[in-house]
Amino acid sequence: MKREFKKIMMTMLLVTASAAPAMAAENYVKEGVNGTANITITLTGIKDVKGVVQAGLYNSEAGYKKGGSVRGAKVDVKADTVTINYTNLPDGEYAVQLFHDVDGNGKMNANLFGMPTEPFAFSNNAVGNMGPAKWKDAKFTVSGSNTAHAMKLN
């Protein structure tokens, strides 16, 4: 059980590491991942209006499992809803992993058992079973110019 919670932590820490280059800007782009599609993520369920939301956008199951995001974002929390914009993406399947870094320390906090103590979410509001949500549950299709996607913190 403790191992599974550590798995959640590692996934969320990988999201942090993926989003780290975004600290200077809200959204960063890995080279070679460009297109005309845009994704707007609306995140609700924020209880503490402080800190930042760190998010990773993934375009493959392998990247999703290993923290290989194609885009990252770090957004200041100034209200109970946060919007994250990813632009100039190729059409395809994507998934998002994010967490609310309430204390702004740049990492997801956990208790002694490795359970996350800061809120997190996966796209499609997918829920993991003793670990991160599965790619098949979190992925969504992006086709065309604009895709809106709603997420809620756990």
Q: Structural class given helices, strands, pairing?
A: alpha+beta
Order of helices and strands: HEEEHEEEEHEE
Shape: globular
Helix percent reads 10-25%
Low-confidence stretches: 13-26
Radius of gyration: 14 Å
Beta-strand content estimate: 35-45%
* Termini separation: 19 Å
Integer tally of domains: 1
Number of helices: 3
Q: What profile does the largest beta sheet have?
A: 6 strands, antiparallel
The number of E-state strands comes to: 9
- Give the overall pLDDT as a whole number: 84
Task: Walk me through this protein's architecture.
- By secondary structure, this protein is of the alpha+beta class.
- It has one domain.
- The chain has 3 helices and 9 strands, in the order αβββαββββαββ.
- The protein has helices at residues 2-19, 61-66, 135-138, and strands at residues 27-29, 37-44, 52-58, 71-76, 82-89, 92-101, 120-122, 140-142, 146-152.
- Strands 1, 3, 4, 6, 7 and 8 form a 6-stranded antiparallel β-sheet that branches. A 3-stranded mixed β-sheet has the order 5-2-9, with no helix packed on it.
- It is globular.
- Mean pLDDT is 84; it is low at 13-26.
